[in-house]
Structure formats: C-alpha cells, structure tokens
Amino acid sequence: MAFSSSSSYSVFLCTILTLSLHFRPNSSALLVKLSHHYRNHHKLQSENPIVQTNQTYSCNLFVGSWVYDISYPIYQFSHCPFIDPEFNCKLYGRPDSNYLKYRWKPATCDLPRFNGVEFLERMRERTVMFVGDSLGRNQWESLICMISSALPRSSPTHIIKGDPLTTFKFLDYGVTISYYKATYLVDIDIVQGKRILKLDEISGNGNAWRGVDVLIFNTGHWWTHKGSLQGWDYMESGRMLYKDMDRLTALDQGLTTWARWVDANVDSTRTRVFFQSISPTHFNPSEWSSSAALSMTKNCYGETSPVSGMVYATDGYPAEDADKMRVVDTVLQEMSFPIYLLDITQLSAMRKDAHPSIYSGDLTPQQRANPQRSADCSHWCLPGLPDTWNQIFYTALLY
C-alpha cells in the first residue's frame, strides 16, 4: 500500500497499526544467510583492521592482552571539564584506581602512545565526526580529553552544544571534532505523536555527514531494547508499518540502508570511514565468574580488574553480541566503500571493571544504594576504556 500525502498517510497509519500489531516478519532467510556467513566472520577483520605501522611488519591491533602500566591514564578527570556526569566515575566517588592503569598490548606489536599535538598537526583544517548512540558520545568525549591533555590550558577551543549535533573546535589548528546523535543511524520521524523508525530512510541524518573528512559510526544496543527503553513506537519498512519485527532483521535492514548511503554519497578519495563494532555489556556475571563466585555479584558492580587472558584471532564474539556482529560483518562485507572495522568488542569484553557501575552522575543516592538494579554496566568510565578505542583509532588513521 502506497501513500503520497499527509492525509492519506494518517488514514494509512490508523489502518495499518491495527493490522500489524501481531505481525512479525519471518527472519529465517536472514538467519540462514548469517549462519552460512559465520565461518567467514573474521574475513573483514583480517583484511581491513590489519594496518602497516611504522614498524617493519603488519600487526592485528585487536589480538592481544591487557597489561598493567603505571604511566596510565594519559589525562585526569579533574583536568577535563567536558566529561558527562554519567561517565565521570572518579568525580562521583569511585574508590579504586587500578582500572585506569591497564594498557592494550597487541600480540605482535606495540601501539604508539597517543600524541594529541601530533593528531592536531596531522589533522589540521579537517573535520572528524562520531555518529551513533551514547557509546559514540562516550568515545567522542574521550578523544577530546586525550587531545586537550596535550595542550596548554591557554590553547583556545570552542564548543557548540546542540541536539543532535555537538561540535568541539581546536581553534589554533582548525580541527573540528563533532558528535552526531543517531541511535539507529537511520531516520526517526514523529507522526501523530508516534516515533516511526524508518528502516529505509537515512537522508535526514545523512545530510549532516556530508563533507566530513573522517566519520566514525556505531550502532547496536538500541536495536534490541524493549519496553520503556525502546526508542520507537513503530517500524516502517517498504512503506509498511510494523508494531514489531525480528530485531536482527530490522538491524540488517537499517544497516543496509546506511551502507547504501555511504556507497553512494561518500568520496573514498577524501573521506575515511570507520565502523565501531558493538560495545559489550557486563550485566551477566556467568560470562566471567566461576559458579562459586556468582553469589557475590549480579553485574559489574564491585569489579576492579579485567578478565585475565588474551584475545586470539580465532575467538568468537561474546554470546550477547555474536548475532548482531554477524549482521554488521555481513553488511560491511557487501559494501563497495572501504570501511575500517574498529573491532573493539572482544578486547572490551575483558574489561568488566571499566564501567561506571553506581559511580555515575545520572543516578540518585537511592539508586546508588541499590547497585543490583541500578548499576550502569553498559557505558564506560572516563578516563578509561574508550581511551584505548581512540588509541587504536589514532593508530589506524595516522600510521
């Protein structure tokens, strides 16, 4: 059924909402496709994330382990006023500090230490934009803090806060680093007070990304949220509205729309595009604790050290993220534009200690007193893990 005017759309909306309440598209074709693709899910990792560093060999930046390093962190929360309260763990009372001291060590090389002045010099008069959900904002704030820590306090900056776009400028260098909020990447429209997630439309968001020199995209968590956390009321696909559908099918359609936009609208000779893999959560201690320890914790609260061990090239993604990452990998494989996958999922899965937990400015005292219900085991403390994401981004971009 097609529509071409707002009045016919209203009639269409009233009619189709009733018809679609119990309809859920079958995703078996997609799942068969992903199952067939699973055996090759490291193909993109082995092609794009392998970079030639200043050393004499290639290095997979995502295979390695966490090592304790007393020279970290590279900045202090008290010297970076740009950190949102929900990420500012030390400001809101986190008592331990060892989580700040871990450095990611690839198995066959060393990451160059982040140099904020070098970043600005080499990115002079260029623009960088993070696009996605609050994990993208987490990483954006991290990069601003990392760069700012290398500059004298007298170095002029300018921030323009908005929704969905917030822009930070390092004026002496002409470098602009922005965050554009697009939780699902594709567009959301409000129709008769209802939020319509448009799986086939992206031009509303995409217009803001044109002409940017470096784009870093992320999405993932919100596609599976339900109840009060769900960010839409209806999905639209092929001009049909659905009360719900298989979430992997929706993610596949939305990412495919994004991929087609990038292929058609971004010039690979002037723009670098990165896609950040899904950031893991730590709400289920069975993923890292022995059965004897499960009674001690129900989420990331109280965790003070990483999971021990090493990430290997043959490791699969954490169970909670595996299906979504297979969708991401499949879509990226089919693109003509050369996307660099910042494959931080597995290395981040080891950092059960790096979440805000109850040490977040977004929580009330009553919520902090009930960590089993209120702990934030999704976002990350700053300083903290997103600094490593940016160190890898810095390496991939400039080395």
Automatic annotation (TrEMBL):
Q: List residues of the Trichome birefringence-like C-terminal domain.
A: 111-395
Kindly list the places in or outside the cell where this protein is found, as annotated in its UniProt entry. Answer: Membrane
Kindly state which keywords UniProt assigns to this record, in alphabetical order. Answer: Membrane, Signal, Signal-anchor, Transmembrane, Transmembrane helix
Positions of the Trichome birefringence-like N-terminal domain: 58-110
Note whether Phosphoprotein occurs among the keywords. Answer: no
Annotated signal sequence is 1-29
* Highest taxon listed in the record's lineage: Eukaryota
* A UniProt-annotated Pfam family: PMR5N
Any GO molecular function: O-acetyltransferase activity
Coiled-coil annotated spans: none
Spell out the GO cellular component terms annotated for this protein, sorted alphabetically and separated by semicolons.
Golgi apparatus; membrane
What membrane topology is annotated for this entry? Single-pass membrane protein
The record's comment on protein family reads: Belongs to the PC-esterase family. TBL subfamily.
Provide the protein name: Protein PMR5-like
